[in-house]
């Protein structure tokens, strides 16, 4: 099935990639776009529905003012102009998860238009992406295809519909064609979407979780010979659901289209699907099969005309731009680029900041969140901020370490205790009896026992091979279930054998 | 009051008698249910009668009154609800097979306001399928007959509501008006029907035909009854964002006053002449003269773009309808045909729509789909919207010269069943006078002003500016008072009793 591709280097030698990105962001308003139903993720199917979001005959939408506010804040953060007057439109097409058989969206009158977003690349260079528009629309329901092998519609025996997501507010952000990125086009694509994610999170308007579908991306790719003005024919890869996949899909399309062109062929305008497991795109739908959406202004809703005063109020309360914030925090914390990237990739920036605010050093906060706690979140399959440990608790654990009450190894047991609901870190230490033992009497007895059990090691230390003390320390720690003060144990060993 | 008096008494008087305990709502309701049982076989105004629900609501109102509550001005009075409005738990079909048996899990705002006001909903009335039509012959459940002459149509799409009033099956009814569906049936049945200013009544729960044109409104046998009903159902509804957040115009006060002295009445030049039945024209002229006698100032006004209104309407309406009706795909509710496990979703949808939609509905869906399609949208939908703007400008200019505009409601009186079924254009022309109002969103009403030589009612059409719905009632009440004096009683006293003329059945 795989199509021929050109090597990335050869593709870039011959062609300049031009990309365009459409990012869908699900807003985290408490209620849906056009009714009062809850938007909570993960509820039992079809429990968050009403006549309006089910599109029952006679029902009518009423727009959620909070969604409009979020859209405006988002538009402002993307440096867009906010429309003085705009409307919703109907996009008519059939899909089984769309109850009205049309989607209420915006067409030629988006709420925000003509903006830009600065994207910082791995080499520190800032690349500006021009934004054409950001418009409001409603999400569709969710289809689950059962009975087939792949979970896709094809081959399924039946499909289940969950309308809980139907009517959840979405913002679609559309870029202008991104030129000038050259070989870095895939990285720009990925970093652009990551920056959107950071921005939305900073604004607090979305949970921006790709795994839950609250952030989705379609990537357009076209190629043109270097130096040519006219854009080539583009393909649109739909519903890419991870940052890595964005980079992968753009890279693959560049290579695939280059092979088509190199071979004297023409790129067909079509949609494509990203096949995560193969790292390839596959043919979706051709332009000829593209639907005619028969847009027209939504007659059930009145025009939206945000007052200029309101827009300026919202502008005044925008949070610090995430890139600037990140640079400021990195400087303040003294992190290396690598350390900072680890924190950002782990979605730990806010958590580290809060942990530092709670009294921990930046390094300690970074270490816990990007290693121990990231691992636990990963194992539990939850986001880092849902792992069950608060920044204040991490700071408290670190304070116990700094005080010498516990060590890093015991700290893991403290986290176990907190997660098991045994109370705050100090209580867990007390209840489980986890404190480090530094009492010379107890430690001395344990050291003596270790020396007795390992006479050959003791001889080597006596012979001046001080580094062999590690083996005895290990034996003592094992005996005392990790609760021994390792530094003091070492001192005692050397006192006895020195 | 005996049963025959109960069914001929006005809603205002019934409410008064119920409030004072002179008669109970249950008695009034029972009398109307009996009347329906006696005559609706011949009239076919109702698609369903909710005897149990009606009597329960009536009993509840009686209990409230017995407990000393002061009920609303129409509490305990029965009403016929057009089947396009959702009523919780009660079959609601919009006159279509595709919704056969559907029981909404919610109330339309209009329905809810009626129930809150203690109005007793007797049942759902017949209508052209999805309100598409001017004769109620497009109902999937068979036509309604005009009580004045069973061989004739009662008008459409709200023929059921209008016929229920004219046959004394209900003293009040609700209609919806997209291009004249309240006013034209009112004209054909000798009753009163008002299309409020767009946004004056909530559309929430009204199965949409064309969202930018639709408007629920009151129907009655007297001007005051209609105004009282108008006040019950009107007012802002947050669930319908196109509803006006403004006080309801003083329609009841205007209906009680009925004074047209000093009112400037504009006769629209373009609505008359060729194509209008001479009897209709003559009645119209006489009515204008009567208004002048009553102290109104009559002026001629020209609205040149009205002649394009029909064409614009028949592009905008199907465009919106094609979108609004997309949801009837047989997947979630209503009729489903051919789902035997061998067919695809698309095939089941196609078979269900083939079986569930009537010819007129299919015709309009196809026209609308075409008019909105890429490459044609600007030429059709776009041009129609421009005409719509011009019609609005014509109204604005006309209302600068006149307080109300007047015309015949329809070019002819009620036509015969079947007469225009195969000629959609002839059918569409019926709404010539009523359509401009829907395009502009202003208020209009039809009031009975006489009979043709054949004994068929003629309607007089009054149009008022946005949010000046009260002016309709001023004119209507003045005419009603003067004409009732002239006739020696209400026009509807002359309607043949269906109970004694059932041999002329369908």
Describe the model.
- The complex is a heterodimer of chains A (498) and B (506).
- Chain A contains 16 helices and 14 strands.
- Chain A has helices spanning 8-14, 65-77, 185-203, 243-262, 308-316, 322-333, 337-345, 349-357, 362-380, 391-402, 408-419, 425-432, 440-453, 455-462, 469-479, 486-497, and strands spanning 15-26, 81-82, 89-92, 102-105, 112-120, 126-138, 142-146, 158-162, 169-175, 215-225, 235-240, 270-275, 280-286, 296-297.
- In chain A, a hairpin with a 4-residue loop joins strand 12 (270-275) and strand 13 (280-286).
- In chain A, helix 3 runs antiparallel to helix 4 (243-262) and helix 15 (469-479) packs across helix 16.
- Chain B contains 17 helices and 11 strands.
- The chains are: A alpha+beta (498), B alpha/beta (506).
- The interface between A and B is medium-sized, with 27 and 43 residues.
**Percent in helix of chain A:** 25-40%
Sketch the topology of chain B as an H/E string, one letter per element.
Answer: HHHEHEHEHEHEEHHEHEHHHHEHHEEH
Q: What is the radius of gyration of chain A?
A: 29 Å
Mean pLDDT of chain B: 96
The largest contact between protein chains, plus residue counts on each side, is: A-B, 27 and 43 residues
Tell me, briefly, the overall form of chain A.
elongated
Low-confidence spans of chain A = none
How is the largest sheet of chain B built, in terms of strand order? 1-3-2-4-6-5-10-11-9-7-8
Relative strand content of chain B = 5-15%
Biggest sheet details of chain A: 9 strands, mixed
Major sheet description of chain B:
11 strands, mixed
What portion of the residues of chain A fall into strands of 2 or more residues?
15-25%
How are the SSEs placed, and which strands pair?
The complex is a heterodimer of chains A (498) and B (506).
Chain A: H1 8-14, E1 15-26, H2 65-77, E2 81-82, E3 89-92, E4 102-105, E5 112-120, E6 126-138, E7 142-146, E8 158-162, E9 169-175, H3 185-203, E10 215-225, E11 235-240, H4 243-262, E12 270-275, E13 280-286, E14 296-297, H5 308-316, H6 322-333, H7 337-345, H8 349-357, H9 362-380, H10 391-402, H11 408-419, H12 425-432, H13 440-453, H14 455-462, H15 469-479, H16 486-497
Parallel strand pairs in A: 11-12
Antiparallel strand pairs in A: 1-9, 1-10, 2-5, 3-4, 3-14, 5-6, 6-9, 7-8, 10-11, 12-13
Helix pairs in contact in A: 1-4, 3-4, 8-9, 8-10, 10-11, 11-12, 13-15, 13-16, 15-16
Chain B: H1 3-8, H2 11-19, H3 25-43, E1 46-49, H4 51-66, E2 78-82, H5 109-116, E3 120-125, H6 159-166, E4 172-176, H7 183-189, E5 192-195, E6 216-220, H8 223-233, H9 251-257, E7 264-268, H10 278-293, E8 297-301, H11 306-324, H12 345-356, H13 359-372, H14 378-401, E9 404-408, H15 424-429, H16 435-440, E10 443-451, E11 457-464, H17 470-487
Parallel strand pairs in B: 2-3, 2-4, 7-8, 7-9
Antiparallel strand pairs in B: 1-3, 4-6, 5-6, 5-10, 9-11, 10-11
Helix pairs in contact in B: 3-4, 6-7, 8-9, 9-17, 11-13, 11-14
